[in-house]
Amino acid sequence: MKLRIANWNIERPQTGQTEKIDALETRMRQIDADIWILTESNRQVTPVPGYYSQHSGPPDRPSKEGEAWCSIWAHDELEDLSSYISDPARCTAARLQHPTIGGIIVYGLILPWHTDNWQGRPNKDGVAFTEALKLYQSDWRRLTSKFPDDLLIVAGDFNQNVTDGHYYGSALRRERLQQAMDADGLRILTSYESDPISRDSPGYACIDHICVSQRQDLKLAKTERWPDAPKPDKKLSDHFGVSVTLVG
Protein backbone atom coordinates (compact mmCIF):
# COMPACT_ATOMS: atom_id res chain seq x y z
CA MET A 1 0.00 0.00 0.00
CA LYS A 2 1.54 3.30 -1.11
CA LEU A 3 0.23 6.84 -1.40
CA ARG A 4 2.16 9.86 -2.66
CA ILE A 5 0.76 13.35 -1.97
CA ALA A 6 2.24 16.47 -3.55
CA ASN A 7 1.69 20.14 -2.73
CA TRP A 8 2.90 23.18 -4.68
CA ASN A 9 2.18 26.90 -4.78
CA ILE A 10 2.63 27.63 -8.50
CA GLU A 11 2.48 31.44 -8.25
CA ARG A 12 -0.51 32.35 -10.39
CA PRO A 13 0.20 31.14 -13.93
CA GLN A 14 -2.12 32.97 -16.31
CA THR A 15 -4.38 31.40 -18.91
CA GLY A 16 -2.52 31.62 -22.19
CA GLN A 17 0.98 31.48 -20.67
CA THR A 18 1.60 28.31 -22.63
CA GLU A 19 5.35 28.08 -22.12
CA LYS A 20 5.14 28.44 -18.33
CA ILE A 21 2.17 26.09 -18.00
CA ASP A 22 3.91 23.47 -20.15
CA ALA A 23 7.02 23.75 -17.96
CA LEU A 24 4.96 23.38 -14.76
CA GLU A 25 3.12 20.35 -16.09
CA THR A 26 6.33 18.72 -17.31
CA ARG A 27 7.84 19.11 -13.84
CA MET A 28 4.74 17.78 -12.10
CA ARG A 29 4.58 14.69 -14.28
CA GLN A 30 8.04 13.76 -13.04
CA ILE A 31 6.74 13.64 -9.43
CA ASP A 32 4.30 10.75 -9.97
CA ALA A 33 1.89 11.74 -7.19
CA ASP A 34 -1.49 10.13 -6.60
CA ILE A 35 -2.98 13.33 -5.14
CA TRP A 36 -2.02 16.94 -5.91
CA ILE A 37 -2.89 20.10 -4.00
CA LEU A 38 -2.02 23.25 -5.97
CA THR A 39 -2.30 26.76 -4.57
CA GLU A 40 -2.24 30.09 -6.42
CA SER A 41 -3.35 27.84 -9.21
CA ASN A 42 -5.07 28.01 -12.57
CA ARG A 43 -7.69 25.56 -13.79
CA GLN A 44 -5.74 25.22 -17.04
CA VAL A 45 -2.79 23.61 -15.23
CA THR A 46 -3.18 19.81 -15.21
CA PRO A 47 -0.59 17.86 -13.18
CA VAL A 48 -1.33 14.58 -14.98
CA PRO A 49 -3.60 13.97 -18.01
CA GLY A 50 -6.76 12.15 -17.03
CA TYR A 51 -6.71 13.16 -13.36
CA TYR A 52 -9.93 14.40 -11.76
CA SER A 53 -10.08 17.92 -10.32
CA GLN A 54 -11.86 20.09 -7.76
CA HIS A 55 -11.25 23.84 -7.43
CA SER A 56 -12.03 26.66 -5.01
CA GLY A 57 -14.45 29.35 -6.18
CA PRO A 58 -13.71 32.84 -7.50
CA PRO A 59 -10.74 34.27 -5.56
CA ASP A 60 -11.24 37.02 -2.98
CA ARG A 61 -8.73 39.28 -4.73
CA PRO A 62 -8.46 40.72 -8.25
CA SER A 63 -7.82 37.78 -10.53
CA LYS A 64 -7.86 36.73 -14.15
CA GLU A 65 -9.63 33.98 -16.08
CA GLY A 66 -9.00 30.51 -14.74
CA GLU A 67 -7.35 31.50 -11.46
CA ALA A 68 -8.15 29.56 -8.28
CA TRP A 69 -6.63 29.89 -4.86
CA CYS A 70 -6.67 26.13 -4.43
CA SER A 71 -7.04 23.07 -6.66
CA ILE A 72 -7.15 19.35 -5.89
CA TRP A 73 -6.21 16.77 -8.50
CA ALA A 74 -6.32 12.99 -8.04
CA HIS A 75 -5.95 9.74 -9.93
CA ASP A 76 -9.30 8.54 -8.57
CA GLU A 77 -12.68 10.14 -9.20
CA LEU A 78 -13.49 12.99 -6.82
CA GLU A 79 -16.71 13.62 -4.93
CA ASP A 80 -17.38 17.34 -4.55
CA LEU A 81 -17.48 18.35 -0.88
CA SER A 82 -17.66 22.09 -1.46
CA SER A 83 -20.93 22.28 0.50
CA TYR A 84 -18.81 21.78 3.64
CA ILE A 85 -16.56 24.75 2.84
CA SER A 86 -17.01 27.99 4.81
CA ASP A 87 -14.55 30.02 2.72
CA PRO A 88 -15.05 28.89 -0.89
CA ALA A 89 -12.79 31.67 -2.22
CA ARG A 90 -9.72 30.09 -0.59
CA CYS A 91 -10.55 26.48 0.21
CA THR A 92 -11.94 23.40 -1.43
CA ALA A 93 -12.57 19.78 -0.43
CA ALA A 94 -13.15 16.50 -2.19
CA ARG A 95 -13.43 12.80 -1.38
CA LEU A 96 -12.09 9.80 -3.25
CA GLN A 97 -12.08 6.05 -2.87
CA HIS A 98 -8.55 4.67 -2.95
CA PRO A 99 -8.34 1.00 -4.01
CA THR A 100 -6.38 -0.09 -0.90
CA ILE A 101 -6.69 2.73 1.65
CA GLY A 102 -10.42 3.31 1.24
CA GLY A 103 -12.08 6.69 1.66
CA ILE A 104 -9.83 9.76 1.61
CA ILE A 105 -10.94 13.34 2.26
CA VAL A 106 -8.71 16.09 0.86
CA TYR A 107 -9.09 19.60 2.28
CA GLY A 108 -7.08 22.25 0.43
CA LEU A 109 -6.52 25.73 1.86
CA ILE A 110 -4.54 28.96 1.93
CA LEU A 111 -4.04 30.54 5.34
CA PRO A 112 -3.49 34.32 5.69
CA TRP A 113 0.00 35.73 5.18
CA HIS A 114 1.71 38.62 7.00
CA THR A 115 -0.10 41.50 5.29
CA ASP A 116 -3.34 39.71 4.49
CA ASN A 117 -6.58 41.45 5.47
CA TRP A 118 -8.63 38.25 5.50
CA GLN A 119 -12.39 38.91 5.63
CA GLY A 120 -11.72 42.34 7.11
CA ARG A 121 -9.45 41.02 9.87
CA PRO A 122 -5.88 42.36 9.87
CA ASN A 123 -3.12 39.86 10.52
CA LYS A 124 -1.51 41.87 13.32
CA ASP A 125 -0.67 39.47 16.17
CA GLY A 126 -1.87 36.60 14.00
CA VAL A 127 -5.56 37.55 14.27
CA ALA A 128 -6.51 36.75 10.67
CA PHE A 129 -4.42 33.56 10.68
CA THR A 130 -6.00 32.33 13.90
CA GLU A 131 -9.57 33.12 12.87
CA ALA A 132 -9.16 31.53 9.45
CA LEU A 133 -7.60 28.44 11.00
CA LYS A 134 -10.55 28.09 13.41
CA LEU A 135 -13.03 28.41 10.55
CA TYR A 136 -11.25 25.89 8.34
CA GLN A 137 -10.88 23.52 11.28
CA SER A 138 -14.64 23.62 11.79
CA ASP A 139 -15.03 22.53 8.15
CA TRP A 140 -12.80 19.48 8.37
CA ARG A 141 -14.38 18.52 11.69
CA ARG A 142 -17.77 18.40 9.99
CA LEU A 143 -16.24 16.27 7.26
CA THR A 144 -14.68 13.80 9.67
CA SER A 145 -17.97 13.60 11.55
CA LYS A 146 -19.70 12.71 8.28
CA PHE A 147 -16.96 10.28 7.16
CA PRO A 148 -15.37 9.03 10.41
CA ASP A 149 -13.47 6.13 8.82
CA ASP A 150 -11.81 8.18 6.08
CA LEU A 151 -8.21 9.28 5.97
CA LEU A 152 -8.09 13.10 6.20
CA ILE A 153 -5.51 15.14 4.29
CA VAL A 154 -5.24 18.87 5.01
CA ALA A 155 -2.78 20.59 2.70
CA GLY A 156 -2.00 23.85 0.96
CA ASP A 157 -0.15 27.10 1.64
CA PHE A 158 -0.09 27.62 5.42
CA ASN A 159 2.19 30.68 5.25
CA GLN A 160 3.98 29.39 8.34
CA ASN A 161 7.08 27.29 8.84
CA VAL A 162 6.95 24.53 11.45
CA THR A 163 10.61 24.19 12.35
CA ASP A 164 12.85 25.58 15.06
CA GLY A 165 13.70 29.20 14.34
CA HIS A 166 12.06 31.74 12.07
CA TYR A 167 11.54 31.50 8.33
CA TYR A 168 8.02 32.82 7.65
CA GLY A 169 5.21 33.55 10.08
CA SER A 170 5.68 33.80 13.84
CA ALA A 171 6.18 31.64 16.91
CA LEU A 172 2.60 32.43 17.99
CA ARG A 173 1.12 31.31 14.67
CA ARG A 174 3.27 28.17 14.67
CA GLU A 175 2.03 27.30 18.16
CA ARG A 176 -1.61 27.81 17.21
CA LEU A 177 -1.21 25.74 14.07
CA GLN A 178 0.40 22.90 15.98
CA GLN A 179 -2.32 23.04 18.65
CA ALA A 180 -5.07 22.83 16.02
CA MET A 181 -3.47 19.83 14.33
CA ASP A 182 -2.80 18.06 17.61
CA ALA A 183 -6.41 18.61 18.71
CA ASP A 184 -7.68 16.75 15.65
CA GLY A 185 -5.04 14.03 15.51
CA LEU A 186 -3.34 15.41 12.40
CA ARG A 187 0.38 15.00 11.76
CA ILE A 188 2.21 17.80 9.99
CA LEU A 189 4.37 15.55 7.82
CA THR A 190 6.43 18.46 6.49
CA SER A 191 7.61 19.81 9.86
CA TYR A 192 10.85 19.79 11.87
CA GLU A 193 13.18 16.94 10.85
CA SER A 194 10.69 15.85 8.14
CA ASP A 195 10.70 19.28 6.47
CA PRO A 196 12.48 18.45 3.19
CA ILE A 197 13.18 22.09 2.40
CA SER A 198 14.93 23.07 5.62
CA ARG A 199 16.73 19.70 5.57
CA ASP A 200 17.94 19.83 1.95
CA SER A 201 17.95 23.56 1.13
CA PRO A 202 19.21 25.29 4.30
CA GLY A 203 18.08 28.88 4.66
CA TYR A 204 14.57 27.99 3.41
CA ALA A 205 11.76 26.11 5.14
CA CYS A 206 8.44 24.59 4.20
CA ILE A 207 5.31 26.74 4.48
CA ASP A 208 3.26 24.57 2.06
CA HIS A 209 2.39 21.71 4.37
CA ILE A 210 0.82 18.28 4.07
CA CYS A 211 -1.04 17.09 7.19
CA VAL A 212 -2.57 13.64 7.50
CA SER A 213 -4.72 11.98 10.16
CA GLN A 214 -2.92 9.36 12.19
CA ARG A 215 -3.46 5.76 11.16
CA GLN A 216 -1.44 2.84 12.44
CA ASP A 217 -1.48 1.09 9.07
CA LEU A 218 0.19 4.05 7.28
CA LYS A 219 3.77 5.14 7.91
CA LEU A 220 5.70 8.09 6.53
CA ALA A 221 8.34 6.65 4.20
CA LYS A 222 9.90 9.89 2.93
CA THR A 223 9.46 13.58 2.28
CA GLU A 224 10.96 15.33 -0.74
CA ARG A 225 11.20 18.78 -2.29
CA TRP A 226 11.83 20.06 -5.78
CA PRO A 227 13.81 21.41 -7.42
CA ASP A 228 16.80 19.58 -5.97
CA ALA A 229 18.63 22.86 -5.58
CA PRO A 230 19.56 25.48 -2.99
CA LYS A 231 16.73 27.77 -4.13
CA PRO A 232 13.35 27.48 -5.90
CA ASP A 233 13.32 27.72 -9.69
CA LYS A 234 11.70 31.13 -10.05
CA LYS A 235 10.98 30.49 -13.72
CA LEU A 236 8.33 28.10 -12.40
CA SER A 237 7.47 29.40 -8.91
CA ASP A 238 8.93 31.24 -5.93
CA HIS A 239 7.99 28.20 -3.81
CA PHE A 240 9.56 24.78 -3.65
CA GLY A 241 7.17 21.91 -4.25
CA VAL A 242 6.92 19.20 -1.58
CA SER A 243 5.71 15.62 -1.48
CA VAL A 244 5.21 12.90 1.11
CA THR A 245 5.07 9.16 0.55
CA LEU A 246 2.98 6.98 2.88
CA VAL A 247 3.32 3.21 2.94
CA GLY A 248 1.50 0.44 4.73
Topology record:
Blueprint: E1 2-9, H1 18-29, E2 35-42, E3 52-55, E4 67-74, E5 79-80, E6 92-98, E7 102-110, H2 127-146, E8 151-157, H3 171-183, E9 186-188, H4 196-200, E10 208-213, E11 219-226, E12 241-247
Parallel strand pairs: 1-2, 7-8
Antiparallel strand pairs: 1-12, 2-4, 3-4, 5-6, 6-7, 8-10, 9-10, 11-12
Briefly, what is this?
Helices cover 20% and strands 31% of the residues. It is α+β, with helices and mostly antiparallel strands. The protein has a single domain (2-247), classed as Deoxyribonuclease I, Chain A, CATH 3.60.10.
Descriptive key words:
248 residues; alpha+beta; Deoxyribonuclease I, Chain A; six-stranded mixed sheet; globular
Describe this structure in words.
The chain has 248 residues and is of the alpha+beta class. The protein has helices at 18-29, 127-146, 171-183, 196-200; strands spanning 2-9, 35-42, 52-55, 67-74, 79-80, 92-98, 102-110, 151-157, 186-188, 208-213, 219-226, 241-247. β6 and β7 form a beta hairpin. α2 runs parallel beside α3. The longest helix is centred in the middle third of the chain and has 20 residues, at 127-146. The protein is globular, with a radius of gyration of 17 Å.
